[in-house]
Write a structure and sequence with these properties.
single chain; alpha+beta; 3 helices; 27% helix; 25% strand
Length: 137
């Protein structure tokens, strides 16, 4: 497996992988509905047998807050350390860019991701509460 990096998500070979994974997760209602990427989004991605198998998109905001915007690993490559390697590289690069805190989001009931967060030295610090207002069609 090869770990790769691109300064601009939009110009990265991982762009299509990220967009397809995001749409798939949206359809399955397994990701937040307010995802954003910007011109400052960077990506770390993993390649195996000439195929992108995972990607982590991140950026540093003006207030030195590092944000893991999106991460996805193909199901057949999970529990093999792919996410951890990508996260560690993204974290290293975020710190290099001046991040003082690194923030990630997941669903409250995503036990696997919460365990992964703990394993990579992160802790739960807040809970977001929402009320989604149905739109009249």
């Amino acid at each position: 497996m090869e770990l790769c990096f691109s300064r601009k998500l939009a110009f990265s070979p991982a762009f299509v992988f990220v967009m397809e994974a995001y749409v798939e997760l949206l359809r399955a209602k397994q990701t937040v509905h307010k995802m954003y990427f910007s011109n400052n989004s960077h990506v770390v991605y993993m390649i195996h047998d000439d195929k992108i198998i995972g990607a982590t998109v991140y950026m540093v905001s003006d207030d030195r807050e590092g944000n893991i915007l999106f991460s996805h690993v193909l199901s057949e490559y999970r529990r093999q350390g792919v996410y951890k390697k990508m996260y560690e590289e993204a974290e290293r690069r975020l710190i290099e860019q001046g991040a003082r805190v690194i923030i990630s989001f997941t669903w409250h009931d995503n036990e696997a991701m919460l365990e992964t967060y703990k394993a990579t030295g992160r802790e739960l610090t807040s809970i977001r509460v929402e009320k989604i207002i149905p739109q009249n069609s």
